[in-house]
Amino acid sequence: MLAPLVMAACLAAGGAARAEGITVHDARDRDVTIDNPSRIISIGGAITEILYALGFEDRVAAVDSTSLYPSAALRDKPNVGYMRQLSPEGVLGLNPSLVLAVQGSGPKEAMDVLEAAKVPLVLVPETFSEAGLLEKIRLVGHAMGADPRAACLTSAVSHDLAQLRELRARVTKPVRVMFVMSLLNGRAMAAGHKTAANEIIEMAGGINAIDGYDGYKIVNDEAIVAAKPDVVLSIERGKDTLEADAVYRQPAFALTPAAANKAFISMEGLYLLGFGPRTAAAARDLAAKLYPALAPEAEKFKPAALTANCRQ
Q1: 82 closest CA partner among 65, 106, 102, 101
Q2: Is 204 in contact with 265 (CB distance < 8 Å)?
Q3: From the centroid of its chain, how far is CA 95?
Q4: What is the pLDDT of residue 6?
Q5: Mean pLDDT over residues 48-75, rounded?
Q6: Distance CA 162, CA 192 (A)
Q7: What is d(CA 301, CA 280) in angstroms, rounded to the nearest whole number?
Q8: If we measure between CA atoms, which residue out of 82, 87, 46, 43 comes closest to residue 65?
Q9: pTM score of the predicted model
Q10: How far apart are CA 14 and CA 162, in angstroms?
Q11: Which of 210, 214, 195 is closest to 272 using CA atoms?
């Protein structure tokens, strides 16, 4: 059942959404004026998820390959490719009236061409935090001329984040988690600070076992042993999904508490790292895996963002 404030925000979200002449301040620290948001190319799985949650799927002309949720997005819409390997001709050839792209989309040359085109390009900031998640929803909603719908969704997500904080407060002994993106020639690429992986680990009540750098980097065997991870976390990526056996066959990982306990968690990538409306639910699910004793409490956490009607 939605909290009263969430319900009130959802009820206030009614009315037609218009964005003619709306100005958005984006991640480039620039103002972008939007006159016609009728044909949107959505680049970034979280952006697509937000647009669908706000009821704008009919305006989405195309998506990128990270737009895995809802499944109808990639099934029903043209795919412009991976967000970091865009072809400007492929994007502009679909005759968009607005391009919404998450910060970090590229390559730079492609983004320069898109920026020089007459089509409004909004780069949505990618800040991996609770505040950054809420601001992402507000910005996308504002770009669509749908501030009331965005307020509805941010209220639901805020409610979920509050539930998550209550769950996290029950953690008495945080576990050390190492997020491994991949193994390249037997060497692990692990997440440091200022990453989605670091934030989701902390939101779930864990501690990032990697503490010496920002971003994703290859770590040597000595660093893996010194990190002493209790759990290894990774993402599901089809045939490229990292398997537990592949990790623990590595000599350095074999010396960690995670190997001793066979503690390995893999979750769907967009769900875990996307920082969209489902992020609090993903952190809840991760917390239940990290702390099995919390599973009964986690089951009581019913994400409002998954049931809120913010579409009209």
Answers
A1: 65
A2: no
A3: 27
A4: 52
A5: 97
A6: 25
A7: 10
A8: 82
A9: 0.92
A10: 25
A11: 195
What tokens appear for 310 in the block? 């913010």
Structure-token pair, residue 101: 């792209």
pLDDT in tens, 159-200: 999 999 999 999 999 999 999 999 988 899 999 999 999 999
Angle between helices 130-143 and 147-168 (to 10 degrees): 170
Q: Is the peptide bond before 96 cis (omega within 30 degrees of 0)?
A: no
Q: CA-based angle 236:238:240, to the nearest 5?
A: 85
How does DSSP assign 87-114, residue by residue? -HHHHHTT--SEEEEETT-S-HHHHHHH
> Which residues fall within 8 angstroms of residue 47, CB to CB, at 6 or more apart?
67, 100, 101, 102, 124, 136, 140
Q: Residues 83-101: pLDDT tens digits? A: 999 999 999 999 999 999 9
- Specify the length of the chain in residues: 312
Contact 168, 26 (CB under 8 A): no
| Residue 189 tokens, joined | 């690429």
Coil, strand or helix at 249: coil
My answer on whether omega of the bond before 70 falls inside 30° of 0, hence cis, is: yes
> What is the largest distance, in Å, between two alpha-carbon atoms of the chain?
60
Structure tokens, 265: 């968690």
Helix (H) or strand (E) holding 133: helix 130-143
The residue ranges of DSSP E strands in the chain, in sequence order, are 22-25, 31-34, 40-43, 60-63, 98-102, 121-124, 176-184, 187-191, 207-208, 216-219, 231-236, 264-268
